[in-house]
Amino acid sequence: MEIWINPACSKCRGALRLLEEEGADYTVRRYLEDVPTADELRDVLARLGLEPWELTRTQEAAAKELGLKEWPRTAEARERWIAALAAHPKLIQRPVITADDGTALVARTDEAVREALGRS
Predict the structure, then answer these.
(1) In this predicted structure, what is the pLDDT of residue 100?
(2) What is the pLDDT, as a whole number, of residue 119?
(3) Is 30 helix (H, G, I), strand (E, B) or coil?
(4) Which end of the chain is less packed: N or C, by CB atoms within 10 Å?
(5) Number of folded domains in the chain?
(6) Residue 99 near residue 116, CB atoms below 8 Å
């Protein structure tokens, strides 16, 4: 299992705390430093069952600068969104846990972290 975190994020710290309490075997990826490639984002999106705009933090300053709220949310615009996430990783919703069963979750709650643990 791998968890993508921003150490400054309280949700990420909470998820890590719960993983530790449960004795989980996991790897931490500080995705602002070890930025996911477009291919990695495509893979995680497929595992999440989400479109890139559903994984985007649209209230971030970079999102406002890019005008993301006005971007089309269509199959044709999908690669543009993925490129924006790869170029501006702070836009990625967090934490993301990739489970050993091939799925992934945005683990913003303790329940989601426990669900990821059940999948690994």
Answers:
(1) 87
(2) 85
(3) strand
(4) C
(5) 1
(6) yes
Range of the domain at 45: 2-119
Q: What angle do CA 43, 80, 2 make, to 5 degrees?
A: 25
Catalytic center residues: 9
Q: pTM for this one? A: 0.93
Mean per-residue pLDDT pooled into runs of 10, the chain (120 residues): 96 96 96 97 97 96 96 98 98 95 94 90
Looking up residue 99, the CATH number of its domain turns out to be: 3.40.30.10
H-type helices in the chain, by residue range? 10-21, 38-48, 61-66, 78-87, 110-119
User: Rounded to 5 degrees, what are φ and ψ at 17?
Assistant: -60, -45
CA trace torsion 5, 7, 10, 12 (10° rounding): 20
